[in-house]
Each structure stands twice: as structure tokens, then as C-alpha cells.
Amino acid sequence: MVSAVFHSPLGASATETGAAASSPGLPGAAVATAAAAAPASAQSKPVRDWRDHGRGLALAVLPPLFGLGLLVLVWSLLSHSSGSGIPGPQETWLQAVELFSDPFYRNGPNDQGVGWNLLASLERVALGFGLAAAVGIPAGFALGRSALLGRMFNPLISLLRPVSPLAWLPIGLLVFKGADPAAIWTIFICSIWPMIINTAVGVQRVPQDYLNVARVLNLSEWKILTTILLPSVLPYMLTGVRLAVGTAWLVIVAAEMLTGGVGIGFWVWDEWNNLNVKNIIIAIFVIGIVGLLLEAALVKLASAFSYEDVKS
Known about the structure:
2 domains, flat, MetI-like fold, mainly alpha, about 80% helix
């Protein structure tokens, strides 16, 4: 008589597990270790993520801090050298705290706080740069679209672009008969070239297939400009804008030193006449920080369009 015995899957699984645990090839301790290793590995993953995040943060923060520390060290050594006349970091810091405790005071037309001087310079930069953008970007589109205009004006741009900003200032004083318009004119004429050149290069690098399709579809020039050229040229145009803003901020300091009035450049020159070297060093840092903020704002604007060549 033959009898059949049926085992449930649960029972079979338990039997197999027990057999595996009792098998000399796979000891029970090894099974327990393997079972415990899985949750331990899962718990160690967040730890590794935090370590990687901390390492990346350290690599992003520590090198600039070391660079600033090296600058302060060299500055301290120079200030302690005999006969240098350069104030040390601690003296300059105390002077900066006192200076920025009331940056918007007014004691007369030529005695105003650093805040008013900075705002006056930024206002001139905004006017000169805005005029340069209003003229330079459309001019760049025109030169890029027309080969005849490009051949006509490229030699002129190559001739005028290397001219020093200070060489344009007397022309502005002669024509406009005023310090403020002359400074704005100098910013305009020096910051217009990067926008013209970069915009024209961007237009020339638009794929010809796009323009051929537009010609087949019989699109108007305005439609070509808004739907084909502008999206393609935008990264080049923003690069030109970034270069132009940096140039404008460089130019205004030199122009204000010569024209006088209210402005960060005039403030630096006035402090030199008063032999106040600490304020001059403070002004250098203020000019650099404002330029850095302008650059960072434009990089942020450019990176919003997700073009790799404008994120750098």
C-alpha cells in the first residue's frame, strides 16, 4: 500500500531553512550575519550621503577661505614692514565698522557717506549700461544678419574697441559740458562693444537649416527674430552683457576720479587727498564686492536658461 504525504509550501520553506541552517556548508552563524548585514547596509547609506555632502561642502568653502586667509597674511606682513605706510587688517576692520555704522550721512555736497557715493556710481552705471544694451544688442543682430553691414563695421569696431576708457572722457566733457553726462558717455562707449560682438557672433552661428526652414515657410523677419534667432542667440547675448557690466563697473571708478562730484571713484580720490589709506582699502573691497554681486546676479540669470556655456 502506497501512501502520499503532501507538505504545504510554508512547511517546505521552514524545512529548507532548517536544513540550510544545519548544513555544514552554510553554518547558522553565517546566515544570521548575512541577514543582519542588509539592514546595516541600508542604515549606512544615509551616513555615506551625509559624508559625501560634507566633503563637497568642505571643498566648496575651504579653498576660498584659505585664499582669503593667505591674502590677510600677506597684507599683515606688508603692513608690518618698515616704511610701507599700509594699515593692517585689524585697523582697517575697525575703521570699516565705524564707516558703515552711518553710511548715509550728509555734511555737504562733497562730504557724504560711502552709501550715497556707491548709489551715485551704480546710477551712472545703470544709465550708461542701459543705453549700451539698447543700442548694442540690436546693432549686433543687424551685423550678424547682414554680411554687408558686417564687412562695413567690423574694421570700425576693431579700431575703436581697444581705446582706453580715459581717452573717451575728454570727448564726453567737450561734447556734453558736464561731468555726469561725460561719465555716462564713457560707460556707454566702453561697454557697448562686448554686446555688439557677442550678439553678432551668436546670430552668425545659428544653424543655416533653421533659416532655410523659415524661408520655406515664408516667415517674416520679425517672426524669424523672435522664434529662431532670439532663443539661439540668447546665451551669446548674455555673455556679452556679463562682460559689459564688468567693463562698466571698471570704467566708472576711473571716470569719477577725474570728473569729481559724488561717486565711489571720487570718494577714493578724495580719501587719497586726505591721506586716509584705510578708507581707500575699504573702498577697494567695496568695489570688488559690488562687482562680484553684479557678476553673480548675471550668472544666476544666465543659468536660468540652462545653457552650459553661460553657467561657467
